[in-house]
Every structure is written in structure tokens, then in C-alpha cells.
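pls ignore typos typing on phone
zinc ion + seq
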Amino acid sequence: MAKILKIITNPNPILRKISKDADEKTIKSQEFKNFCACLVVTMLKKDGVGLAAPQVGRNIRVFAIDTKDGPIVFINPKIVKRSWAKEWSEEGCISVPKIFGKVKRPKKIICDYINENSEKQRIEANGLLAMVIQHENDHLDGILFIDKAKEIQKIEE
Ligand SMILES: [Zn+2]
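k done
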């Protein structure tokens, strides 16, 4: 059964570690499939557009994103192409509560990854989808959006 995982927040050092690729045996394990399901359920419950494994305390290269066609799990993702053209957009992060800022990122990307059925996939993304994939991929390298953001705003309670 998929359950809601606990979200860890900045400055927890887990968020700053470089995560490791999931090996083939891990990807095929029931424990890992459960973990992916929990990641998706947690993302949806928290109304996030994306959630990376380090945000729930696990330094493994996996993240989930929510798209209009439903959630996608990215295992061992690699951004293989980035457009020269960049754009600024407003970002926030469930692990950096109450903070927003503008981040400049490549507009279009191509990302290779493995899905839950151990199949190689490729996605071409632009706009919000490209931004979310890059934001989540940064989590796997210990990077938070506040490292790149300008006009950082704090929402007071
Ligand atoms: Zn984030």
C-alpha cells in the first residue's frame, strides 16, 4: 500500500547530497516499486507538481512529476539536451517552505530516464514541464532552487 512519506526541509543535509543511481536489481525490487508509488501519492497529496526522493529522505536518483496526462516517475534521469534559449519562471519547493523566487532555466530540454517497468524512455519538454523536470533533477544533485533564484520572497504567516 502506498503511504504518505514525511517531507524533509532545508537545511537538512540529505537535501545537499548527490544521490546515487538506482541499480537494475533495485529497480526491479518490490520495495522500490512501493517507494515509487509512495513518492507519487505523497506528491499528489501535497499538491506538488514534482517530488524527488531526497525530499523524502532517500538519496537515490528518482523523482515524480505530475502532468496533465498523469504522474510520471523518472528513474536515473539524464538531461541530454538543453536549449540555448532560457526563460525566467517563478518557483517554489515543498522542502523550502514559504519561499518563492525567479529562476532562469533552459526553455526546452530532452530527458532520458527509466520508468517503473525498467523501460528506457525519452521525453521532450518545454514550458512548465521542462522547468519542473530541471527543478527535480537539481534535487538529485543536492541543488535547491534558492541557489539559483533572484527576487527571493518570503511569505509571512
Ligand atoms: Zn523542490
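The two ends are 35 Å apart (CA to CA). The chain is about 20% helix and 40% strand. more later
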